[in-house]
Amino acid sequence: MGIYLVSVGAEDWFGEEEGGWGHVASALNEELKRRGLPPYLSVPEKAGFVRGSGQSFEEKLVASMEGFGALCEAHLSPGEADTLCGWTVLVPVPLDEDVRLPFDAGYDDESLIAGAPRVLALAERLAAAIGLPADVPVACDNLDLTMWFLDGAAQELAATRPGPWSEDLATAFYVALYLRAAQHSIRRGCPLVHS
């Protein structure tokens, strides 16, 4: 069990049945229209699983977020931290402000939708602050990032290339998680949700 961060394909994003996000997709498009922005319609179909392809995203939030919260507090404003950490839905749409919708998102009474370009900029600031190494996995198809931090690869790299990133691997994990999630959303043009 636990909370996963996963990409969503077109069928589920526009789906109205149980487990579908159609009500959120529809309300988001109404809000985008109100803001003078085009609707978000070009969601790709769910890709078949191919390890290392980078076509899907699935990671598990397993580590303590205490150090990550402190890092956000030190480098981001409260509003920026809320955008980076508080979203329930991430979309590849350039949003100057997050969108709050009165729909249950599984873990909250409302859905907070953030734009991946804005989340990416915030995650990049944190990655630079801790010197996150480029060796961190880019493809996150099947818990690749989670396992890299848990199975010893991160510890091995920390032993040979220590730095601020290696002082708290749980914090580095969350920086990498939000960075890779935003990159994936933009690259694939798909939404990500907590599941």
How is this structure best described in words?
This protein has helices spanning about 10-15, 20-35, 65-75, 80-85, 115-130, 145-150, 155-160, 170-190, and strands at about 5, 60, 90, 100, 110-115, 190-195. By secondary structure, it is an alpha+beta fold. A 6-stranded mixed β-sheet has the order 2-1-6-3-5-4, with helices on both faces. The longest helix is centred in the last third of the chain and has 20 residues, at about 170-190. The mean pLDDT is about 90.
Structural class call reads: alpha+beta
The strand count comes to 6
Helix content: 40-55%
**Computed CA radius of gyration, to the nearest angstrom:** 16 Å
Low-pLDDT stretches: none
Quote the distance from N terminus to C terminus: 10 Å
Global morphology: globular
Contiguous helical run count: 8
Topology pattern, helix = H, strand = E: EHHEHHEEEHHHHE
Bin the strand percentage: 5-15%
- Rounded average pLDDT: 92
Q: Strand sequence of the main sheet, in spatial order?
A: 2-1-6-3-5-4
For the largest beta-sheet, the strand count, sense and barrel status come to: 6 strands, mixed
Give the topology.
Blueprint: E1 3-7, H1 10-13, H2 22-34, E2 58-61, H3 66-75, H4 78-86, E3 89-91, E4 99-101, E5 111-115, H5 116-130, H6 144-150, H7 153-160, H8 169-188, E6 192-194
Parallel strand pairs: 3-5
Antiparallel strand pairs: 1-2, 1-6, 3-6, 4-5
Compose a concise summary of this entry.
This protein has 195 residues and is an alpha+beta fold.
Could you list some keywords that capture this structure?
6-stranded mixed beta sheet, 195 residues, 12% strand, 8 helices, alpha+beta, globular
